[in-house]
Fold Anterior gradient protein 2 homolog.
Amino acid sequence: MIRGLLSVLFVLVAVAVSSSLAKPEKNIAKRGKRIPQTLSRGWGDQLIWAQTYEEALYWARAQNKPLMVIFHLEDCPHSASMKKAFAEDKDVQKVLDEDFIILNLVYETTDKHLSPDGQYVPRIIFVDPSMTVRADITGRYSNRMYAYEPSDIKLLLSNMQKAKKLLKTEL
Amino acid sequence: MIRGLLSVLFVLVAVAVSSSLAKPEKNIAKRGKRIPQTLSRGWGDQLIWAQTYEEALYWARAQNKPLMVIFHLEDCPHSASMKKAFAEDKDVQKVLDEDFIILNLVYETTDKHLSPDGQYVPRIIFVDPSMTVRADITGRYSNRMYAYEPSDIKLLLSNMQKAKKLLKTEL
């Protein structure tokens, strides 16, 4: 029997237990059937989403496209209002579909680079295909630099254009 | 600018590039709309799936339930036939719904404990809530110990019962 015990995961679990985490939802439709969970979680049903950060990084490198990572929670009203604005904005959706690898997560990863100023939701982080987290691409709030509100959609779109200007790869 | 560069991810990318990986599918329905990707990927639309291994481990510990991890590929015929049998078996689906945390992945994780005898698909690995990979719970093929075929559904169900007998936690 092999022990799949990683100290890093212990830390993760300890953090998770003490934080407000989205519980797996059991969406029950009217006829008693659950609505299947989607990878988009409502952030753009017509887009192609990566499932995990590792998968997303792989596709970013393979296709030489920037990666957008959205951290959110299903029961967070700020996440919900941002999600609505995000999913309804045709420009955002079009540029993402054509030029980005995308991932949305309701659970933090073990990579601390994805939380340059802490773990909060909603938070949008760009990663260059050279696997460099673009901590320089920020929103308008100095205390939560990677947070966006529905009124910030144009800023987000402008930040997406910044992220499309790829860093020179040093690899 | 922070560099989100992990050597372990380099290794992962190298492995991924050289392996036959499922490309993100652009399922286009008849009316030109894509069918939203589901977390179940057809292994049980009515079940509640974890998105990532870290999330799954968290829920396994929090709910003291064993975790089943299914590795598969969307364009692999063995995965497809196993998926069909799996999704249609009411006993399997019922026990999973009640007693298991479940995760299906089309991309390998960085945890080598999840590939005790190599990376292949389809492959089903159980993990105890004590975070111990149950390498002792195997299928019937000595060269691919964690592979199952549609005719092995009863064996899988029996293995699920084994996984439900939790190990004494040593934590």
